[in-house]
Structure formats: C-alpha cells, structure tokens
Design brief:
The chain is of the alpha/beta class and about 425 residues long. It has helices at about 1-10, 15-45, 75-85, 105-115, 160-165, 190-195, 205-220, 255-265, 280-290, 310-315, 320-325, 355-360, 375-385, 395-400, 405-410; strands at about 60-65, 65-70, 90-95, 120-125, 145-150, 170-175, 180-185, 195, 200-205, 240-245, 270-275, 295-300, 325-330, 335, 340-345, 345-350, 365-370, 390-395.
C-alpha cells in the first residue's frame, strides 16, 4: 500500500522538477569535491618538502646548420637568457605567460630596461590574467619599451567567442637575428630551482621563424600607441625545423595535428613528458593505436602538479591508458612542467602546449618541431634521467585505489572539456 502511495506521489512531481533536483544534487557533489580538493591542495603546498631532482646539464647539438641547446634547469636557462639580453645590439622580442615580480623577474626587467636605455628596440608581451597576483606596479615599464598586454577580456562583448577567450601561454625570447628561446619556462624564482621544465635555445635560420611568430602576434591587433613591426628579413624553407603556432583568433590549432600525425607515424617508441595529461578522444586513441602496433609508449607526468584539479582529471584516463599498454611514470618530489616529445629517435618537439584542451584548442601556444637524430637522442637521454626520479604506475596498483577516489574522479569527468 505504501509503495503505491509513493509511486503516485512521484508521478505527481513534474519531470522538470526531478531533473532540476537531480542537477542540483550532482552540482552540490561536484562543488563539495572541488572544495575538498582545494583544502587538500592548500595543506599539501604548506607542508611541501625541500625540492631536489636529477637534471641534465645543457648541451648543444647541431641540426641542419642550426645549434640547439636544451635546458632542464631554470638557473642555467635564465643565466643564458639574461646574457643574451645584455649583449643585444638591435632588437629584443620578449613574450611570457607568467612574469613574477620577484628576484628573477626583477633581473629580467632590469636587463630589458638597460637594453632599451642603450638604444635596443625592446618589445614585450605578457598575459594579464596569468599575472593578476603580481603587483601592477611591477609592470610599469619605461616608455622606451613597447608593451602589449594580452588582455584579461579580449574582443569586448565577444569575449566568450573562442577566437577571443584564449590566454597567451607562449614563452619566447628572440634577440637580434641571432638567437631564440622557446619552451615551458615562465619567469620567476620558483621556476629557477624548484620546477623541472624544458626550454630550447635556437640559432641559425630558424630564428627568423621565431621572429615571424612574435611579429604576427604583435601585428594582429593594431593599436595606435604601438608601432607595427615589419616582417622578418630572413625566412627560408627549413628541412629540419617547423614552428607551429596555435592562433585562436584565426581558429588555427596546428600543434594538435602535429602530435596526432607524429604519433600515427611512430614505429618504435613514443616518449612524452607533460605537465598536464588530459587527452581528447583522438589523442587518446592515437596513443592506444600506437601500442597496438607494437610501439613503446611512455609518458612522464607529475605525481602531484601545481593544479590539483588537473591531476584528478588526468587520473581519469589512467585506467584506459594502462589497460592498453601505455606506460605511465609519476615524477616525484617536484613539479615537472615540460611539454616535450620524442619519437623513433628522429622526431622531437619542445614548446609551450600541454596535452589538454586549453593548450590544443584554446590558448595561443608555440612549439618547435625538430627532425634530427642528435636532438632526439638528447631528449631520450633527458627522459631516461627523469625516469630515475619516477615511480611507474601499474594497472593492478591503480585498480586498488579506494572507492571514494574512483567516485571523485567520476564526479569531475564533466570538467575535462574545460581544461
């Protein structure tokens, strides 16, 4: 009798109310999960241990008439970047996502100001959103430095349009026609010693391509107070290098295609190191198909990154990857922020794009694609050294995690397309 009454009561409730209440309940669970993760993350950062990790000293190899130097430690990179700025004679292009107002950030600011004061043309780009926690006074640069701030909200009322919502996540330094730097390193003291990242120094004809990447961004949105930059004088067809740029304003996202094509060609090994691993369906399938062809697919990711939500979203893919035979290595004791890959001892990429939606179909990004065995060999060596600081995750251990952890991963699944 009571069951019949309950069923009649349920039938009297409008379907819209049931759906609404269900949505509210799901939203409450998701919000509670996010809050719990934020608390855990706060405690984790407060109790962080001293940072130490193995690293490979920068070494230069020659590829197609250009020199390629790969950095895995921030202090080494910053020393050479600052030296390049201090030796500049004509022009500097400096573009960064995060620029901290600390000791390292001030050193770069001072070097750029000194260069401008001695007559060097200095052009600076930084992302406003990424630097909201930096005192605005830090970015008060003298008028002899040309500054383009990637705005917090671009496009006015069109800021929700994908063409205007992307952040400028690029990290570029180009000095004269001589040298260019690109990679994952932002500017700040934390990154100098505590993060494991990867950056490349390039010379030769590829520098013209890096100049062109900066100039195209600078000129894309003309502003009365900013000079328009002329096209670079030295551009040519390069057999060993390609510069790939994601340009949301034009709906152009070649970095994703670069990765898919390279993984699809792999015959022997695919070794990736990434800060955030939240692949879309095509990227996930490409990695799984490579394993099925007998390719050795290995991925290094941080055991704990600087974004705990990204970690949990990433973990939602681990079971499928491990079941397919992809080997996952969790980097210990430090944030690994690199965005690199090397395939078959022939192909490599170093850049700013992560394997997630924001990087592959959202933000302004830049990667250099390199076809050279010596560069690939060096990245393989770096990967091998990094692996000594990792714990390999096996499927049996991963399946044994608690029900609450599995439930939380499932609850957060709808957030994957947002990151």
């Amino acid at each position: 009798m009571w069951m019949r009454r309950s069923l009649r009561t349920i039938r009297r409730i409008p379907v819209r109310k049931i759906i609404g209440r269900t949505a509210l309940a799901v939203g409450a669970v998701q919000a509670g999960t996010l809050v719990a993760l934020a608390i855990v993350d706060h405690r984790r950062k407060r109790n962080r241990k001293p940072i130490a990790f193995p690293r490979v000293a920068p070494r230069t190899v020659t590829a197609g008439g250009s020199e390629v130097t790969i950095y895995t430690y921030g202090e080494d990179l910053y020393y050479d970047m600052l030296q390049a700025i201090r030796q500049a004679k004509r022009r500097i292009f400096f573009e960064t996502f995060i620029w901290k107002g600390d000791g390292i950030g001030q050193a770069f600011k001072d070097a750029l100001i000194d260069a401008a004061d001695r007559g060097v043309e200095v052009y600076v780009v930084y992302d406003v959103f990424a630097n909201l926690v930096v005192p605005p006074s830090f970015f008060q640069l003298p008028p002899n430095i040309h500054v383009r701030r990637h705005p917090l909200l671009a496009g006015g009322w069109r800021f929700l349009d994908p063409r205007y919502s992307g952040r400028n996540h690029r990290k570029i330094l180009v000095v004269d026609d001589d040298v260019a730097y690109v990679g994952g390193y932002n500017i700040g003291s934390l990154y100098a010693t505590d993060w494991r990242d990867t950056h490349a120094r390039l010379t030769g004809d590829v520098v013209g391509e890096m100049q062109n990447a900066f100039i195209d961004y600078w000129n894309a949105d003309p502003r009365p107070k900013l000079p328009e930059l002329p096209d670079p004088r030295r551009r040519t067809w390069l057999p060993n290098f390609r510069i790939h740029r994601n340009v949301p304003r034009h709906y152009v996202y070649p970095i994703r295609g670069m990765y898919l094509e390279a993984i699809d060609r792999a015959q022997e090994r695919v070794w990736l190191t990434h800060a955030y691993l939240i692949p879309d369906r095509d990227m996930l399938q490409a990695l799984i198909d490579a394993v099925r062809r007998g390719v050795d697919v290995r991925i290094i990711v941080p055991a704990e990154s600087n974004h705990i939500i990204a970690d949990w979203l990433s973990r939602g893919f681990y079971s499928q990857l491990l079941r397919a035979g992809v080997r996952l290595f969790l980097y210990q004791g430090a944030m690994v922020h690199a965005k690199t890959a090397t395939i078959d001892g022939q192909w490599s990429t170093i850049g700013t794009a992560n394997i997630d939606r924001l990087s592959l179909v959202g933000n302004y990004e830049i990667n250099v694609e390199i076809f050279d065995a010596d560069v690939a060999r060096q990245l393989e060596e770096i990967f091998t050294v990094d692996a000594t600081n990792c714990v390999e995750l096996d499927l049996e251990h991963w399946r044994s995690r608690s029900f609450m952890v599995k439930f939380s991963e499932t609850v957060l699944t709808p957030f994957r397309p947002l990151i």
